[in-house]
């Protein structure tokens, strides 16, 4: 008798489409892992850059700091929005364009900032490790762009 009351009105809970139980229609398993990797590499690059005690020319250091901190914070925000249902509450309908554009721009900025920082640093261990993690983050962002295009195509084609 209880089944007669509840079965017509009860809706089954659909399984999540992404790894670790995060609901997402924008991130598959590969891109989910790539976003986590991007966050971690950006954070490590930022932390290592913060341990630099002196600099020959500080402007490249500050640019690298800006890029790594921005990448960490905004990728964490984008990841949180795209891996949960929060993206539905924001009011943006073009998440594919936002994700593609942001990831592409950060990959280019990491490339530029890492090249500039490696060309004008003192060669200390924290500076060298910062640059290494900057290049690794750039590679992760570039791979993410590649998988995005491979799975979704270009978001700007009509």
UniProtKB/TrEMBL annotation:
Topology within the bilayer: Multi-pass membrane protein
Record field: transmembrane: 32-48, 60-82, 94-117, 129-149
Pfam families: MARVEL
Cellular component terms (Gene Ontology): membrane
Domain MARVEL: 26-153
Native organism taxonomy: Eukaryota, Metazoa, Chordata, Craniata, Vertebrata
Stated name of the protein: MARVEL domain-containing protein
Domain of life: Eukaryota
InterPro entries, alphabetized: Marvel, MARVEL-CKLF_proteins
Record's subcellular location: Membrane
UniProtKB keywords: Membrane, Transmembrane, Transmembrane helix
Primary localization class, coarse: membrane
């Amino acid at each position: 008798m209880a089944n007669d009351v509840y079965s017509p009105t009860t809706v089954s809970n659909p399984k999540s489409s992404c790894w670790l139980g995060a609901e997402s229609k924008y991130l598959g398993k590969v891109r989910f892992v790539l976003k986590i990797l991007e966050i971690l590499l950006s954070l490590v690059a930022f932390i290592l850059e913060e341990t630099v005690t002196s600099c020959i020319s500080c402007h490249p250091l500050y640019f690298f700091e800006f890029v790594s901190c921005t990448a960490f914070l905004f990728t964490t925000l984008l990841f949180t929005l795209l891996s949960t249902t929060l993206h539905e509450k924001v009011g943006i309908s073009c998440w594919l364009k936002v994700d593609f554009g942001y990831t592409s721009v950060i990959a280019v900025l990491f490339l530029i900032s890492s090249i500039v920082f490696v060309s004008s640093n003192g060669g200390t261990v924290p500076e060298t490790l910062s640059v290494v993690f900057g290049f690794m983050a750039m590679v992760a962002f570039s791979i993410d762009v590649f998988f995005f295009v491979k799975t979704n195509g270009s978001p700007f084609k009509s």
